[in-house]
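User: Here's a chain of 300 residues. Predict its fold as tokens.
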Amino acid sequence: MPVSTTTRPRSVLSRIGRTAMAAVLVAGGALAASSGPAQAADNPYERGPAPTVALLEASRGPFTTASQNVSSLSVTGFGGGVIYYPTDTSQGTFGAIAISPGYTAAWSSISWLGPRIASHGFVVIGIETNSRLDQPDSRGRQLLAALDYLVERSSVRTRIDGTRLAVAGHSMGGGGSLEAAASRPSLQAAVPLAPWNLDKTWNTLQVPTLIIGGENDSVAPVATHSIPFYNSIPASAEKAYLELNGASHFFPQTVNTPTARQAVAWLKRFVDNDTRYEQFLCPGPSGSAIEEYRNTCPSA
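Assistant: Prediction complete.
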């Protein structure tokens, strides 16, 4: 199937930082330094070691994490939840992701995603919704309220780069992540999982979006949800669609290697602007667990 290539830089280099680095190199006579440090200077958001398949498929990434509960009584706009964050304070700030569960579900239904994603160098908040029956538009607003809380009021706010934020969710939470991304184009990434939404057209969405669907989903069939969503998002946004072979609507509720592997790679590429992860996005995953994969092949 045709693959288009677009360019969408997700970070702006610091002119001051580049100038200062050049001055140090000249003063030290190190203009012939190896490419490793130069590449690190080019991307101040790069976190963690060079990625491998084994690293992405492991139950935890390279960062040790901790968690803390957030009471619904201490927040507004969403129902509280759990924050997961890297304990390493030597890496600078991290990007942050808010994740919503699905219709009638609690965060515990997909809570394995919290420490899994955080261990790759992100602050994650898994939210409880105001009501188990909240629709996608409400869940989208709640995801944004959770991000605002993380950046402005949470006890881990000093660990977060408020310019590098993303959303994700399952089912109506996945539909909510589309709503959030459409209403806040400054987000760096969205990862809807088996998304459900009555709105099928997202042609104004400009946030890089990875949609993961299940081949045998009978609640939000990919033919009437994930695929139309993907097709309607403009290629200029950067997008990918992963369909899991034989998977039901509830695949995000169990530890699933293709889901975590691709979600982490997507977040690293677009939230951290880490081009080392492009190898996992283009040409993308293959094997018996994958029914189909489409993408726009992000460019550095």
